[in-house]
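Troubleshooting log. The previous run stalled partway through. Resubmitting the same two chains, unchanged.
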Amino acid sequence: MNALSTTDSSSPSEISRPTSSPTSSPTLPQTPSPMTSHFLEIDGISKIYPTAKGSYTVLEDVNLTIDEGEFICLIGHSGCGKSTLLNMVAGLNKPTEGQILLKNQRITEPGPDRMVIFQNYSLLPWKTAYENVYLAVEQVYKHRSAQEKKDITLEHLELVGLTEAINKKPSQLSGGMKQRVAIARALATRPEVLIMDEPFGALDPITREEMQEELVNIWETHPSTVLMITHDLDEALFLADRLVMMTNGPSANIGEILEIPFPRPRNRAQVVESPKYRELRNHALDFLFRRFAHDDALE
Amino acid sequence: MRENRYFVCLLVPKQGFEFGIAEILLEIECPITLQRAMSANLTPPITKPNFLVSWLKNPPQKLFRPLIALLFILTLWQVLCGSPESSLPSPIKTFQDTSDLIFNPFFDNGGTDKGLFWQILASLQRVAVGYTLAAIVGIGLGILIGSNAFMFEALDPLFQILRTVPPLAWLPIALAGFQEANPSAIFVIFITAIWPIIINTTVGVQQIPQDYKNVAKVLRLKGFKYFREIMFPAAVPYIFTGLRIGIGLSWLAIVAAEMLVGGVGIGFFIWDSYNSSQLSEIILALIYVGVVGLILDRLVGWVASLVVPSEPQV
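Second attempt completed without errors. Output:
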């Protein structure tokens, strides 16, 4: 497991803040329960973009705590700041107010402990599947031998079922295979948090279901904390432990969090047929289309 | 019994250097004897002739049309310039006048009286030096400007002005600065070729997709590693566009520069021929200049095809 390396926070009080006593962070009017230490804490996050017509608030005072090993799905209409929120967890974007703590350390920059899987795969087109994964392995396991790095790379390509295609370039791979490479690349670094921004959005429905099952299988054998944006309610209900539903922007926030209690390993047919599934689905639909309806239809 | 069905694999040349395999199902109804004879040596006779036939069929057509066009132009030229009082030589006269130069390109009588091979070589050497310098400096500056918004905003307007200055306009200032002909000619090549290289490299670096930058950020690729793994491969198609424009401009500029600075070189050879009224020699030199320019362009294109990743951006 690679060490968490977001230690260069400017404010020393936030590096290892005591969890048993109340903190005195100046940016935070209210602090989360000081009694418990959460794995990932999104703490009073606001994101305001300055524009020509004045400031535009994308997110306002978002709070969410996530335990280690949880599978969280985020759903919401486009423009609600889901991606902005996850980019801030990834460190690609900085919050205007508030902070995000991973194991009590403030996230200040991107790092391989929070790997991101993008909707458009983000594979480097001039590298083969193997080289794409190896680049990540090389960056994270800097002190391992070449053979070990090679083994780790091959192991993860095998995990996603790509042993045959390791020497192919992304342009020679189908969408599903590309996303498998991206997943292998992300998992190979053993991230603490796996961030996925609509990972299966560009796939056809059949491949999408296959990839969901594979993802769950891999996640169950290689546990990590997952944050995933989706537009697909069924996908969220099949995958997630909790479903975070966002209100509409501007000044979006978390509207409601649904606990999804289906036992694991989940069987898609059983899940779909259970009355609880229909109840949760109707509840979420009600939230998205009635209470927080949007001009744009849900994809 | 369907033994008289044969799968025949054909190697069909596609674009570039790739070969595609086309499978054709042939249903052959023929006498048993012939059938047996065919199946005995099926693969070689059908595969090879087809490959050869298709190979022979395409290039001749591609050669045929330009040849006709060339013949037409030569005929027109002959008709227009065939009369004795014509101010320009006809193609036949050009060939007669210059056959010595054509068949003996390697003579060296000292001074500037050298065969066309040496003349062109001298020009190519100047281009090689000036262009190489332009490539190194241009790519370096392009990367610097492309990856730094401040530098881009500071220098881009300046470059946009300087790049429109015609190559020969730089020559007097170069002669004044270097006090010597040869470095001045090389400087003209350098300053001509560098702008497209800088500008294309800058664009290449600026257009690196945010996705790749995000990957680099998440993996903490920095410094030289970022350059090697992300920036250079992403920008290299643009860099080669600049290099290819640059080599063309260099060759355009060298002829003009050499006309003014003198010495051995194809440019001065043309000027010298004009001064001694050897119009046929000028025409021959122009043809050589055109052919060499084409070869230079294709050479850079060929290097690009080796270096540039074949896959387009996803």
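Takeaways: Chain A has eight helices and ten strands. The two ends of chain A are 37 Å apart (CA to CA).
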